[in-house]
From TrEMBL:
Protein name stated in the entry: tRNA1(Val) (adenine(37)-N6)-methyltransferase
The family this protein is said to belong to: Belongs to the methyltransferase superfamily. tRNA (adenine-N(6)-)-methyltransferase family.
Example GO biological process: methylation
Primary location group: cytoplasm
Amino acid sequence: MKSFTFKQFEIQQSKNVFRVGTDGVLLGSLANVEKASKVLEIGTGTGLISLMLAQRNSQADFLGIDINEEAVNLTQNNFENSPFSLRLKNILCDFKTFQSDEKFDLIVSNPPYFEASDSEKDKLARQTVELNFLQLISKSSKLLSENGILSVIIPFEAGNDFIKIANENQLFLIRKVNIKGIENSKVKRLILEFSLTEKLVEESEFIIEKSPRKYSDQYLELTKEFHVFKEVRN
């Protein structure tokens, strides 16, 4: 499969691992990584999100985990070929059994949300049978540093359930980005960020396209340090 070239790194892709998509680009661009020293990504896929975050924060160290061996190998290759390779590590691991003595300032994930699929890569990367929201949230809450943040991108329809489960696990919503595919359309994705401490929620709106196949000025400004060209698709 054709690789995807960004300004500072390249993403090798595979037909068996989810390719570069808008969700990953948005989370890599918007997740609150600025004050983080240690970052954990759950479900690295190609390594896109960690690479984008590493470009945005030149001091942080990154650990990525994935349950898919091919994804781990692909990510490791992408990490090693990047300018940030010394700060990036990736391991084969099921998050449900992941153990760590250290805490993380940012835990980031584009988590599973498709309930069913015939595709093997979907079964590993997108079915909630592999990692459901409760498992993701409850374990993340134990791995966050005192001021740490959990940052995820999920479908709009899953937002209320995710927030409810987070509250039940002592994680409080501190930021919500309502993402629309096109101007004047319904919200289709949410970026949600949670903290162990209750704070005033920061809420904003983000529009990907101003018209079909034409990115909004907001999107172009957000991704200008990453994209070599304008068009990127899910």
